[in-house]
DNA sequence: TAGGCCATCTGGTCCT
DNA sequence: AGGACCAGATGGCCTA
């Protein structure tokens, strides 16, 4: 807000140079104050837009979280974990599809003796052996406090693989 | 208390 | 000119 002084319209010797300088100074201060408030209001508007933008970004991130399987269910992944997990999850799903195409129709030998990888056993190796350069399905590379345990890593692809290969999916399978 | 995560502010840059 | 996007800075909250 420009502090508009009460004495802005007094009339004393309109032609005097000193008075003219004083008026110029006041006018300049007024325009500077105006400019300042203009800049300020633009900044406030920009801040508001930026806040909104980030809220939308977070909403999208929440949506992404909601379709990612986590263990336990109420685990909330951080932003970076969500992005990494989504990346790896997509990779794992497409890999699952690829493997499913290979095993349909299921070869008799496979159904009989050799069981598909289970979450607890060699699913991790299934993941890593599927592609040497494959990313881990783990959401993060962080320490033990990370919500993405090794259990989570094998969880989704192993179960979906079971489904695709005509075997009963394990209870609580993440894929609908 | 240090470190991680997050929200917000801010100034710069690019685009329409 | 104004809006969108981006990256850096800052401060608050939480946890080990």
Break the fold down into its secondary structure elements and pairings.
Blueprint: H1 17-66, H2 79-102, H3 108-112, H4 123-130, H5 150-164
Helix pairs in contact: 2-5
The protein binds a DNA duplex (16 and 16 nucleotides) through helix 1.
Region (Disordered): 1-29, 110-152
Protein name: Neurogenin-1
Keywords: Transcription, Transcription regulation
The portion of residues forming beta strands comes to under 5%
Please state the average pLDDT score: 62
Helix content: 55-70%
- Tally of separate helices: 5
Q: What is the ordering of alpha helices and beta strands?
A: HHHHH
What is the overall silhouette? rod-shaped
Could you give the distance between the termini?
Answer: 58 Å
Q: Gyration radius, to the nearest Å?
A: 32 Å
Structural class: mainly alpha
How would a crystallographer describe the biggest sheet?
Answer: none
Number of strands: 0
